[in-house]
Every structure is written in C-alpha cells, then in structure tokens.
Amino acid sequence: MNLKIALLAGDGIGPEVIDQAVKVSNAIAQKFNHTIEWTSALTGACAIDAVGEPYPDSTHDVCMAADAVLFGAIGHPKYDNDPKATVRPEQGLLKMRKKLGLFCNVRPTFTFPSLIDNSPLKRERIEGTDLVILRELTGGIYFGESGRKDNGNTAFDTCTYTRMEIQRLAKLGFELAMTRSKRLCCVDKANVLESSRLWRETVQAMEKDYPEVVVSYEFVDAVAMRLVQWPNSYDVLITENLFGDILTDEASVISGSMGLMPSASKGLHTSLYEPIHGSYPQAAGKNIANPLATVLSAAMMFEDAFGLHAEAAAIRKVVDLSLAEGIVTEDLAGTNKAYKTTEVGDWLAARV
Ligand code: IPM
Ligand code: MG
Fold this sequence. Notes:
By secondary structure, the protein is α/β, with parallel strands linked by helices.
C-alpha cells in the first residue's frame, strides 16, 4: 500500500518526537511492504516566524492532499504571557481543526503494568483502567461568538451546539462502545446549561438505535471527581469541546505516563494523529523528550486511517518491549539509565 502522510512537526519537542515516529513507521513500511510518501509542512510558532501565520494555506493544501496527518505539538512560551499578541500558535491549531473538519478527538487512557507505580493515584484505584474520551472538537465555546463590550470591561464567550454536531460525535461514541464493553457515558452540565440539555436530549433520542449500549448521563463536575476516584469504572465517554479539554488532561496523567498517551482527531476531510502532551519548550533541542506517545499515535494512524492492524500491533509490541527492557527516556527511567530520544527511536526501529 502507498501511504500519503502529511507531517506537521510543529514547535518545541515536536520535531524530535516526530523524527522517531517517522523512523519507526519507515521500518514498519519496509517490514510489511508499504511505501510511505511523507510531506512536511509548517505549523505553529515556527510557521508564524516563517510566514506570519500559524496554519498557512500551503500547509492546509498538504493536509488535504494526504491520507492522514501526523502531528507533533505547537506552542511557544513567548506567546503565553502576552495577552495582547495578535497572532498565536494555538490559533493555528483551531483553524486546522475547523478547516479539516476534525470534529471528533479520540483520547484514550490506559495503563502499562510496568508503569503503574508512576501514577499519582494508588495502584488499586487505577489497575484495569482503559477508557476513551471522545471530545467534540469543532464547536462549543471554542468557536462560538465572543467579544468585549462596555468599553472592554465586559467579555463574553458563547457555547453553541447544533443537534447535528452532537449526533455525529455521539454516533462515533455509540459505535465505539459497541466494540468495547457497551457502556457509554454522556458528560454534560444539563442541570445548568441549555447546550447541555440539547446534548442530553439528542443522545437520549439515539439510544433506541443502539439497544445493547447502556448509557449513563453524568454531570461534568461529578465525572471530574469520579475520574480520580474510580477511573476503571469508565469505558467510553462523550462530551463537548471545553469539558473534553479539561477532562482529557485530567485523564492523561492517571496512567502515570503522559508521555505515552496517543490521540486521534477524526475529520470530514482527513484524520490527524498526535501525542496528547504539548510542545514542552523546556526540553526542546535536548534530545530527552519521550517519543512513545508520538510513536503510539503512528500506530493509531496505521490502524484507523489505513486499516493496517498487524502494523499497529507490531508498533505497540516494540513499545511494550522497550518499556519492559528499560529502553526509556529520563521521565520513565527513575534511578536507571536514561536513554536519549533518538536512542529510543533507533532501538524501536531496529526491533521492528
Ligand atoms: C488541546 C490543547 C488545545 C485546546 C490548545 C493548545 C488550544 O489544550 O489540544 O487539548 O484547548 O484544545
Ligand atoms: Mg488541552
């Protein structure tokens, strides 16, 4: 198979972790007789520096022409503490999501037996945790009407959802639940918000189409609490954009290894795969970042975008091996030898 993949390395540690995922993917392609056509394009702070725009049209064209997009991370500290900056790397991310129609962000949280004691939670709380949050990614308060009034002394952001936007996200939730334990949790704030009441009403109306799926409806504040108390009681969760942003960060640390969690954003035009962690500017250029979340994102890409299950399984297997043999970066090494980002990538590619 010929795979056309757009490569958006982005900022900070993005290029370093992406390089390792490319090495491992190329090794997989060789082993399974595929060819991969990589096309790199700029996004984030590096794109602002180069062309004044965080998601240039030329990058969009590269993404549209590809079968899938592999993404690193974006962000730069020079923008973080400057509320007056008129152009920011994050705008590029939002523009990319909107223009590619990436409406469903899939963020799994699972545990690695060898890393369970790295979790901030007690072992008995997290053992067996294997959940997936589907976060709506192109609507809600991120994209609603916003502005200032009263001479700038009042600010507002609006959360708007249409029934169609909720249905298409919920449909993927029901379908995913059918392939897993058939439990689906709809996370909202229907006791307060009108948009949440539309979520609940819409999902309730869909239940009859999936009679085997047991749906629970829970308020977001209660879910935030139960996620740290009993994360292993959840399976598939669906939620709107901002709630999902917050809950997926919370969920990502439960496994004890944020540097390991991959994600996918499924879209109307293409799908994008990226590590859950950010651009980690403090580590940029030091060759110490953990590349595994990006490597595992490539595995998700082989599986979801191309239906190549054996290839994905082979990647997951070498990642498991590297963890078992202690070929890990400093965040996971503890008192043992810490390997460099490139050394982990080389090891994985050779093992494939
Ligand atoms: C994420 C990030 C982004 C978001 C930021 C960088 C705009 O936090 O992907 O979760 O809020 O969606
Ligand atoms: Mg976030």
